Amino acid sequence: QVQVVESGGGLVQPGGSLRLSCAASGSIFSIYSMGWYRQAPGNERELVAVITSGGSTNYADFVKGRFTISRDNAKNTVDLQMNNLKPEDTAVYYCNAKIRTRLLRYDDYWGQGTQVTVSS
Length: 120
Hints:
Layout: E1 2-7, E2 10-12, E3 18-26, E4 30-39, E5 46-52, E6 57-59, E7 67-72, E8 77-82, E9 91-100, E10 107-110, E11 114-118
Parallel strand pairs: 2-11
Antiparallel strand pairs: 1-3, 3-8, 4-5, 4-9, 5-6, 7-8, 9-10, 9-11
């Protein structure tokens, strides 16, 4: 059994900052990558940032220069430091992990989501 748990969302004013945290736990053999996605009402879920166990990162264009993703491989955690937040960043943010358990493949696991609201 694998669990992915997020925390750190909340209400912040434009220009403010939040730090989201995510921890994966359970019967984990290995993790290929962990990342963050977001979904606003009426929109598709979209990639925000992802990081592999080797440290390679990929950011959506709309967050480059503002958000930073980091990972602690030993603890199976990933953080998303969000700076200079904008109203359009308002969404439910989901943690994603590509995890191998006892199967010879990687599967996607998702956190429950945490609400980020940017409003004055």
